Amino acid sequence: LPGAQAFVCVGMNYYPGEIPVEARTDPSRGLISRYAWGADYHDLMAPRLEELAASIRAETGGRAADRIYVDTGPVLERAYAAAAGLGFIGKNTCMIHPRFGSWLFLGEILLDVDVGRDVIPSYKGGGCGTCTRCLEACPTGALVAPYVLDARRCISYLTIELKGAIPGELRPLLGNRIYGCDVCQEVCPWQRFARPTQERAFRAADPDRAAPPLLALIALDEEGFRRRYTGSPIARIGRGRFLRNVAVALGNWGDRQAIPALEKALTDADPLMREHAAWALERINGRESTR
Length: 291
Description:
Layout: E1 6-13, H1 21-24, E2 31-32, H2 41-59, E3 66-69, H3 77-83, E4 88-89, E5 95-96, E6 104-111, H4 133-137, E7 143-145, E8 148-149, H5 155-161, E9 177-179, H6 183-186, H7 207-210, H8 214-218, H9 222-229, H10 238-253, H11 259-265, H12 271-289
């Protein structure tokens, strides 16, 4: 934005609460990151930021030009949010608010006018101290040092951003996580202050939205995938990458119930799906041969 002078930063609590423990601990179900249990946050937050930007334009007599960001564009949101006083950066590289934890969506308005500066809260008492729970808990060792994340090993990257095959040596470490990972946030002591969001659109309508049965997912065709995940953040990675993740989870589950569905997946039109289904079958059959 030419002449940019200020960021307006916002945070929105998305913590949806918990699902029944029997669903969360069932290896025949896939685990989905909490941020994707409900509606797509881009669609919900962007219009509200547009309204706020319009209010700012009105206050400045129409002089303000702006750009809106919600987890989009070349903006390191957590750095601006921390500078704006929304919290501090934790050793897990997430922004942590001392009264809400890290279950926050971030959004920004970039302005070309000086809107002044609010009194920024000081979180001198906030920080990680000597705690290293997140580093110790990361399933793939992606947190290689405090405040340092190797994205190439991060389950959220591997199951969402990575467009190709998941590296073979990392597949067993994914367990049954099929979209994102919350481990480094779940173990953080600051999460004890988290309260469920008041935005109902972010909550799971039923446990199957948060931990769906893997065998039901592997059977989804394109139409079924669109019908199930339209309006969800999951829709943006497409059926191929999502079922790639599901195939890995089935292999890690290791139950022979999955064999017929995986054998059918060997004829899928998507080569990514075929490759990961073959790996899953080898993993299940390998376990059988050692019994």
